[in-house]
Specification:
alpha/beta, Rossmann fold, three-stranded antiparallel β-sheet, about 25% helix, binds S-adenosylmethionine
Length: about 240
């Protein structure tokens, strides 16, 4: 049985969530820039049906439609106020559409040429059900980003932010870091033809937020590269392309 999970608790923190996600449009994130580079050869000049699964305020569709103006984008998210915001942000752009919906309940079968699932898997209880749903609706490629550890260990992490109102509801959010080899094995098992991973190395410094808040900051290593962290969690990002 599929495990249903409500990512946000009603409208608590609504304004905070919208404000945090709106920043992604005002200032393009380094990882979003890297996705654009990786995905461009697959979408530029083409006319595709693209699903933005768990789209938030739809910033990924908003950026990618400029690279692939002939493609049709559908953003689906379970949080109604984010879909309202996405619709406002993308108002007037004909090939972008947004719907409230649960990715685990989609009725489509192999409808989309490509699916994007951006910065979401690590914030869910686990990835198996959602990936099966994405495989069911996608014909050719899935692009996703999440936190992955290179060894055969999963880290299932629940983060309680005690100064946040929602922390009273049990826990605030997951920050899971998944075993990459185990994840890869799973996607081959459910039918992937090929899987390619791209590590994400940030090239600029991010300041540490106040101690009681989660939020990505960087630590400079001796070899000049930067390690990303949020609170006590290492943000070991990978961008992954799954060919079906
Ligand atoms: C960490 S946010 C990422 C949002 C967006 N992709 C981004 O990059 O900003 C995860 C999003 O997934 C949505 N979500 C979680 N589970 C879902 C599900 N089963 N179906 C649809 N949306 C879901 C939440 O409402 C939330 O907007």
């Amino acid at each position: 049985m599929k495990q249903k999970y409500n990512y946000f608790h009603g409208n608590s923190n609504k304004n905070f969530v919208i404000d945090s996600m709106s920043k992604y449009i005002i200032q393009k994130q380094e990882m979003d820039k890297q996705l654009e580079k990786i995905i461009s050869p697959f979408i530029k000049g083409r006319s595709l049906d693209i699903l933005d699964a768990c789209c938030g305020i739809g910033h990924i569709s908003y950026f990618l439609h400029r690279i692939s103006p002939k493609s049709k984008f559908l953003g689906i998210d379970q949080t109604p106020y984010l879909i309202d915001e996405a619709t406002k942000v993308c108002n007037g752009i004909k090939n972008l559409r947004f719907e409230v919906g649960d990715i685990l309940d989609m009725k489509y079968k192999k409808k989309f040429d490509m699916t994007i699932n951006w910065k979401t898997l690590s914030w869910l209880p686990y990835y198996t059900d959602i990936l099966k749903s994405l495989f069911k609706v996608t014909k050719s490629h899935i692009f996703l980003s999440s936190l992955f550890y290179d060894g055969n260990i999963d880290f299932e992490i629940k983060v309680h932010e005690f100064k946040k109102r929602t922390s009273k509801l049990g826990f605030t959010s997951y920050y899971n870091v998944y075993s990459y080899p185990h994840f890869e094995e799973f996607v081959y098992e459910i039918g992937a033809k090929n899987v390619k991973s791209y590590d994400f190395h940030i090239k600029k410094d991010l300041q540490k937020p106040p101690r009681d808040q989660m939020g990505t900051y960087t630590l400079l290593l001796k070899n000049g590269s930067r390690l990303q962290a949020s609170g006590a969690v290492l943000m070991l990002w990978k961008i992954i392309r799954i060919d079906l």
